[in-house]
Amino acid sequence: MSNADADRATPPAADHTFQVDLRGLVDLLSHHLYSSPRVYLRELLQNGIDAITARRAADPAAPAAIRLTAAGGGLRVEDSGIGLTEEDVHRFLATIGRSSKRDALETARRDYLGQFGIGLLACFVVADEITVVTRSAGTPDAPPVEWRARADGRYAVRVLPADARPEPGTTVLLTPRRGSEEWFAADRVLDLARDFGGLLPYDITVADETGRTSLVTDTPAVWDREYPTPESRHSALARYCTETLGFAPLDVIDLSVPLAGVRGAAFVLPSAVSPAMRGKHRVHLKGMLLTESADTLLPDWAFFVRCAVDTEALRPTASRESLYDDEALAAVRDALGAGLRSWLTGLAAHEPERLGRFLAVHHLGVKAMARHDDELLELMLPWLPFETTDGRVSLDEFAGRHRVVHITDTVEEFRQIAPIAAAAGLGVVNGGYTYDADLVGRLPALRPGTVVDRLDPDTVTAHLDPVDPFVELAAGDFLALARTVLAPLECEPSLRTFHPVAVPALLLDGRDERNERTRAQAESAAASAGDDLWAGILGALRGDAPQARLVLNHLNPLVRRILTVPDEELARTTVEGLYGQALLLSRRPLSAQESTLLNRSFLGLLERAVDNTAGGAAADPAGPADEK
Ligand SMILES: Nc1ncnc2c1ncn2[C@@H]1O[C@H](COP(=O)(O)OP(=O)(O)OP(=O)(O)O)[C@@H](O)[C@H]1O
Predict the structure, then answer these.
(1) Helix axis angle, 39-58 relative to 186-197, nearest 10°?
(2) Any stretches that span the bilayer, and where are they (predicted)?
(3) Would 347 disulfide with which of 17, 96, 314, 355, CB 3.0-4.6 Å?
(4) pLDDT tens-digit series, residues 22-39
(5) pLDDT, tens digit, 9 for 90 and up, residues 184-199
(6) Is residue 333 within 8 Å of residue 341, measured between CB atoms?
(7) Chain-centroid distance, C-alpha 516
(8) At what angle do helices 568-585 and 592-619 cross, to 10 degrees?
(9) pLDDT above 50 for 619
(10) 398 within 8 A of 386, measured Cβ to Cβ
(11) Does domain 465-510+546-610 match CATH 3.40.50.300?
């Protein structure tokens, strides 16, 4: 069949227009777009502000006020803005998704808060009916118009007599839907209006049933006011933080990105927080509170501050509860990050004590920042604290004393080895804390001549004093026995002298050694489970990592006695006991094999002790009394 035949066979397609189910749309908004019904008030304020902005663009002397009256259970919002003609009402109020602000010139559009043409629908989240009485300022001879819209999508428009509303402007009337009454209580309305509208540019008042009227707007913003001294500015901002953000800040940092019209302050948290926590910042858009929980405003590393800012250039999402993640936001984020950084560098140069107070709480944040910023690290090197064998000192100080900076892999390793390494003259930094190993690794580039080395068993052993050759010879039999006891554990015994004397044995066991042991254990487990393929693969991965070392301390009196134990069985048990005790000191998790060894040695020694006491008591009941 040709196309022409087909055209003849089928009737022409009829054009239709999409229908909108308003109830479905409102349900979507209230459950999926807005986080709370409270936003209805923000949308009303915003429309009032935009209407005044539009009127004043043509007539800068036009009145500029928004009056809210919460009375009789309902709410009236009256603005002295541009108003609407009957035609405008059909075009803008009654057409979802159409906004007069989008039709405006680009330059004027930037002055408006709204843009999407859906804001008014937020009122249907709390009310079944919206009544708007409006009179156009742009067409002065146009009569006032009343628009009544219902949540089911029906609306009615009627033209009112001229004296029904003599002045231009718009009044919106809402009566709460059953269950939404709480959002209309005068106190609630005042709180919401203060929260959303406190920084808006035109006067906003809220009146209650008794006629008591409160001013909502409190401008300029606390960060834009003039103060007689820097101290009074600091205290005013700190007070704002306590009242609005709910904590007394450790410090206050002014923020300003003129290109994006961002002004505000960052407040340093009074206690340390997890670097994984995303900051929750309070962001105003041209004065209107957009969100109290913007988490993309600052770089990730700036988790030690909370901000409050007002911005001109950033874009809101349609819910107007978060920022649109675009290039402008990325640029602002970078600029705010640079601001925080220069605050820090300023402190380092001029106010070291203040920097010290800050770092005492937030060194982790600065370390996170310095990982990707050599210049900052260089600047902060004299200030950032690290845990070392010289105590809590800066890397600068530490590198000044130790040409070779040793670093441990874990906190446990540091705890076990630090006292011994320190006594042996080694300089060790605890590399087990977040960011520390990264930063220490960058030290040679910043302080040429400094060497950074991982602390391995060989280095420690080499720094422990060897024993006299005669002592070594005398202990030969015991050490040979210890070698056979420890061989299955892939550990090699040796005898040294070291401090503290109270430590009988030290288990030196670096990362490579541990990895190799885990591999060997997995290989033997696979082999005994008959999994030849896996055992073969693991076997092929065998490393040539050195063995772990059990270094016995010849200065320790108990070790000296153990070296001369004649009973071979007891000597075996004591080797296992010393290994087990050193293992416990290393504070790492025990394998099944190690737990078995610990149990065996502990019970073996206990048995010996009981046997001795029982044997001694049986042979000579008066013995213990004689010893006293
Ligand atoms: N108080 C008012 N005075 C004058 N015009 C108003 C007022 N409220 C609403 N309008 C008109 O109704 C239109 C639709 O308003 P609505 O709040 O739904 O969207 P918007 O403010 O344009 O955009 P957004 O969805 O981003 O808030 C507006 O563009 C404006 O033309």
Answers:
(1) 60
(2) none
(3) 355
(4) 888 877 877 778 888 999
(5) 999 999 999 999 999 9
(6) no
(7) 36
(8) 130
(9) no
(10) yes
(11) no
pLDDT at 627: 37
Q: 83 C-alpha vs ligand 1 centroid, how far in Å?
A: 10
The answer to whether 479 touches 487, Cβ cutoff 8 Å, is: no
* Cα gap 304→306, rounded to integer Å: 7
8 C-alpha to ligand 1 centroid (Å) = 48
8 Å CB contact between 442 and 386: no
- Domain 222-334 and domain 465-510+546-610, same fold? Reply is no
- Secondary structure element (H or E) that encloses residue 380, with its range: helix 374-380
Cα of 155 vs centre of ligand 1, distance in Å, is 16
Q: How far is the CA of 120 from the centre of ligand 1 (A)?
A: 7
Cα distance between residue 121 and residue 22, in whole Å: 9
Residue whose CA lies nearest to ligand 1 atom number 8: 47
At residue 314, what are phi and psi to the nearest 5 degrees?
-75, 155
Q: Which fold has domain 385-455?
A: Rossmann fold (3.40.50)
Residue for token pair 């048990």: 573
- The encoded tokens of residue 307 equal 């901000």
Residues with a CB atom less than 6 Å from ligand 1: 43, 46-48, 50-51, 79, 81-84, 92-93, 99-101, 114-120, 170
588-610 pLDDT, tens digit per residue, is 778 788 888 889 999 988 988 88
CA nearest neighbour of 125 among 47, 199, 217, 25? 25
Sign of CA dihedral 294, 299, 303, 309: negative
Q: Ligand 1 pocket: which of 53, 113, 120, 147 to mutate (most atoms <8 Å of CB)?
A: 120
Biggest CA pair distance of the chain: 128
The one-letter amino acid code at 256 reads: S
Which residue type sits at 374?
D
Cα dihedral value 123, 126, 132, 136, nearest 10: -30
Residue 78, token pair as written in the block: 């009256």
* Model confidence pLDDT, tens digit, residues 160-185: 999 999 999 999 999 999 999 999 99
pLDDT higher than threshold 70 for residue 317: yes
Ligand 1 pocket mutation, candidates 40, 50, 285, criterion most atoms within 8 A of CB:
50
**What band does 476 get if pLDDT is binned at 50, 70 and 90?**
very high
- Domains of the chain, by residue range, sit at 22-215, 222-334, 385-455, 465-510+546-610
Ligand 1 atom closest to the Cα of residue 320 is 26
Identify the bridge partners of residue 76 per DSSP, sorted by sequence position: 69, 173
Question: Is the predicted pLDDT of residue 131 greater than 50, yes or no?
Answer: yes
User: Does the pLDDT at position 47 exceed 70?
Assistant: yes
Q: How far does the chain reach from its first CA to its final CA, in angstroms?
A: 122
In this prediction, residue 29 carries a pLDDT of 77
Q: What is the pTM of this model?
A: 0.74
Instruction: For residue 625, name the pLDDT band (cuts at 50, 70, 90).
Output: very low
Cβ count near 561 (within 10 Å) = 10
Domain 222-334 has CATH 3.30.230.80: yes
Domain 22-215 has CATH 3.30.565.10: yes
Provide long-range contacts, Cβ within 8 A and 24+ apart, for 138-142: 138/58, 138/82, 138/83, 138/85, 139/85, 140/168, 142/85, 142/86
Tell me the pLDDT band of 628, cut-offs 50, 70 and 90. very low
Q: What distance in Å separates the CA atoms of residue 453 and residue 421, rounded to the nearest whole number?
A: 14
